[in-house]
Design brief:
Immunoglobulin-like, 5 helices, 5-stranded antiparallel beta sheet, 369 residues, single chain, mainly beta
Length: 369
C-alpha cells in the first residue's frame, strides 16, 4: 500500500531541556493513502532515520513513533523524542558533513514500513549545531576555524595580542612590528604621529613585497625640455610623501604606455592574494632603505639603485631640463661629485638622488594597510 505525506513541515523551533542544547525538531504532516483519501483517527507507526553525508549513508540515528492521526489526518511529532533504535540524538555531530532524513510509515501501527522518501536536511537549528556540531571548549576565549577538512581549535590568546591569518592558520601575535609577515608581505613601516594618514585609533603602515619584482626595469618615458622641444614631465607622479606612491603609480601607468616599466610591474602585481601593490614614493622608498635589514631580500648592488615612483626635474645644462626619477642605491660605493649638474650624490647612505628614467633599476612593490 502506498501512502502520501502532504504539507511536510520540519519546523525548526526548539524544545529546551534543562538549559542544555534543545534535543528535538518539530515535525508535522498530513497523511493520505495511495488513493488520496485522508487517514483519519488512525494509529500509525513512523520511523525516522538520519543518514550521514548521502541519502544512503551510514545511519547515525534512528527512532520510531507510535501515534494517532487527528480528525484532519495530521500527525505532530518531535524528531529526537521517539523510541531510539540506533544511536543517540543528543550526540549527532551536525557540524560534520551533510545529514539526510528518511521517513517511513506503517499505517496499521505495526512494523511493516513503507519508505516515503529521503531528503537532505538543508537547515539545522543553530542550537542543535552549537550543542553537538562544535567541540566543547576548555578555556574562555577559545575559537574554532575550518582547516579545509575539519574544525580545529584555536587556543585563547593573552591580553594585548591580536589574531592574524598566516599560511592558512589563525595565529596569535603580540603586536605588529616591522619585519613581521602580514597581509601578503612584510611590514616595512608603521605610521607614527605626524605621518600622513596616521590614526591614533587604528594602526596603519606600509607592507613590502617579500622579494624584488624586477632587477632590471626602467622608470620609463625619458623626457627633456629645451628650446625647440616641448617635452614636459608626466602629469602627476610628483608626490614625495608617505601615502603618495599609489597615486604616483596610477599617474605613471596612465601617462606612460611603455611596457615593462617599474610602475606597471607593481601596479599589475597580484601577490599572496593582494592586488593593491604600487611603486613606493621617494619618502616611502627611504623608509624601505632604513628598515632594509628587517624587511630583507634587497640587493646591495653597485650602481643599480631601487626606483621610486616620484618624478623630478634637474637642470643639467643651460636651457635644458631633464625629467628624472628619484632613486636610492642600497649598495655602498664612493660618492659622486655632483658638480653643477644638480644630479645629487649617489651613495649607499639612504639619500635619494635623481636617476635617468631610461636606466634599468631594482623594483620592490609595497602596499598600505
Amino acid at each position: 500500500m502506498k501512502y502520501i505525506l502532504l504539507a511536510l513541515v520540519c519546523c525548526f523551533s526548539f524544545i529546551h531541556i534543562n538549559a542544555q542544547a534543545p534535543q528535538g525538531i518539530p515535525y508535522q504532516s498530513i497523511i493520505r493513502n495511495g488513493n488520496g483519501n485522508l487517514l483519519i483517527n488512525q494509529s500509525v507507526q513512523v520511523r525516522f532515520t538520519i543518514h550521514d553525508s548521502t541519502m544512503n549513508g551510514n545511519i547515525v540515528y534512528q527512532e520510531t513513533h507510535t501515534t494517532n492521526t487527528s480528525a484532519a489526518a495530521m500527525i505532530i511529532l518531535t524528531i529526537g523524542q521517539g523510541t531510539p533504535v540506533t544511536g543517540n540524538f543528543s550526540t549527532i555531530n551536525w557540524g560534520n558533513g551533510a545529514k539526510f532524513m528518511q521517513v517511513e510509515l506503517d499505517a496499521t501501527g505495526g512494523n511493516n514500513y513503507v519508505d516515503l522518501g529521503t531528503q537532505q536536511m538543508m537547515s539545522v537549528p543553530f542550537a542543535l549545531y552549537a550543542g553537538n556540531g562544535l567541540k566543547n571548549g576548555t578555556a574562555s576565549g577559545e575559537m574554532m576555524y575550518w582547516n579545509g577538512t575539519a574544525w580545529v581549535n584555536v587556543a585563547p590568546g593573552i591580553e594585548g595580542q591580536f589574531l592574524t591569518f598566516h599560511n592558512g592558520t589563525p595565529t596569535w601575535q603580540d603586536k605588529l612590528t616591522i619585519g613581521m609577515n602580514y597581509q601578503g608581505g612584510i611590514i616595512a613601516y608603521i605610521l607614527h604621529q605626524g605621518d600622513p594618514g596616521y590614526d591614533p585609533n587604528t594602526l596603519h603602515g606600509l607592507i613590502a613585497a617579500p622579494f624584488d619584482q624586477s632587477a632590471a626595469a626602467p622608470w620609463g618615458c625619458q623626457e627633456y625640455n629645451y628650446p625647440g622641444v616641448n617635452q614636459i614631465g608626466l602629469s602627476g607622479a610628483d608626490g614625495t610623501a608617505i601615502g603618495t606612491g599609489n597615486q604616483n603609480t596610477i599617474d605613471i601607468m596612465n601617462g606612460c604606455s611603455e611596457a615593462g616599466i617599474a610602475a606597471r610591474i607593481c601596479g599589475d602585481l597580484v601577490l599572496n592574494g593582494y592586488s593593491d601593490w604600487y611603486l613606493p614614493s621617494k619618502d616611502e622608498l627611504v623608509l624601505l632603505y632604513q628598515n632594509r635589514i628587517a624587511i630583507g631580500a634587497f640587493v646591495y648592488e653597485y650602481g643599480t639603485p631601487y626606483l621610486s615612483s616620484t618624478e623630478g626635474a634637474a637642470s643639467q645644462y643651460p636651457y635644458l631640463i631633464t625629467y628624472l626619477a628619484w632613486a636610492i642605491n642600497f649598495g655602498s660605493f664612493p660618492a659622486v661629485n655632483n658638480g653643477s649638474n644638480n644630479i645629487g650624490t649617489i651613495n649607499g647612505n639612504g639619500n635619494a638622488f635623481f636617476f635617468g628614467k631610461s636606466f634599468n633599476c631594482h623594483v620592490r612593490a609595497i602596499r598600505s594597510f
